[in-house]
């Protein structure tokens, strides 16, 4: 091979020429742009989820999501705290932090990049069960067999779980009312679906709207969010 002509006289390969270096820079910039496009690609979505903050558990609706962030519709002011988590119906838990706000919609950034397939996963059993919050409040329970007082410790739009020493039968019709007047939960008609000792699961005759559910959660845990 003749090393006496061209760039080879100076020990310079084609890969080290200015043109080659510029080509590599352009290629790297293109790959970086594609990566940014992938991370900012938002998938439209409408799905109820749970926002967990130091103040409690709150209702939200996922509007769209990307690998790096999510946009949520809230029904009150944004909960604050050093640790905020988004709990999806599929069981996924994601640490998030607010970055922008526009009316009742708030953009959050994921602490770590997520897998969209896992985020969007929903099993039939979870979807049927619906969104549940660990809300605790005292209730008055009335039935044809007599009244009783209990404590609700789990609530969904469709029903609740409560503890009560008064015995009730399966499928028995009940009227449940919150004992805290400022909550204005109202009287709800329900039926007993299951029981275990003093623990009962009931289903409401009329489901709560998502707005009612969200407002009740805020009233019980952090009323200041509604002001």
TrEMBL record:
SUPFAM superfamilies: PilZ domain-like. It holds the Pfam family PilZ. Residues 36-117, 132-218 form the PilZ domain. It comes from the Bacteria. Residues 1-13 have a biased composition (Basic and acidic residues). Residues 1-23 are annotated as: Disordered. One of its GO terms (molecular function) is cyclic-di-GMP binding. This is PilZ domain-containing protein. The lineage of its organism: Bacteria, Pseudomonadati, Pseudomonadota, Alphaproteobacteria, Sphingomonadales.
């Amino acid at each position: 091979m003749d090393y006496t002509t061209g760039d080879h006289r100076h020990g310079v390969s084609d890969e080290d020429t200015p043109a080659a270096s510029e080509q590599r820079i352009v290629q790297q910039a293109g790959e970086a742009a594609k990566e940014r496009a992938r991370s900012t690609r938002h998938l439209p979505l409408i799905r109820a989820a749970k926002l967990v903050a130091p103040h409690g558990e709150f209702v939200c609706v996922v509007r769209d999501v990307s690998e790096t962030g999510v946009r949520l519709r809230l029904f009150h002011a944004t909960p604050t705290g050093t640790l905020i988590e988004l709990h999806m119906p599929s069981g996924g838990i994601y640490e998030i932090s607010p970055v922008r706000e526009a009316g009742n919609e708030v953009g959050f950034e994921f602490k770590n990049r997520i897998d969209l397939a896992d985020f969007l996963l929903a099993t039939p059993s979870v979807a049927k069960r619906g969104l549940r919050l660990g809300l605790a409040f005292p209730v008055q329970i009335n039935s044809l067999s007599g009244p009783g007082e209990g404590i609700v410790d789990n609530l969904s739009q469709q029903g609740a779980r409560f503890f009560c020493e008064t015995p009730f039968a399966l499928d028995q019709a009940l009227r449940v009312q919150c004992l805290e007047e400022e909550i204005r939960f109202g009287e709800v008609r329900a039926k007993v679906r299951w029981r275990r000792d003093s623990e009962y699961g009931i289903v409401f005759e009329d489901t709560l709207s998502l707005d009612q559910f969200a407002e009740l959660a805020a009233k019980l845990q952090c009323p200041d969010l509604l002001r």
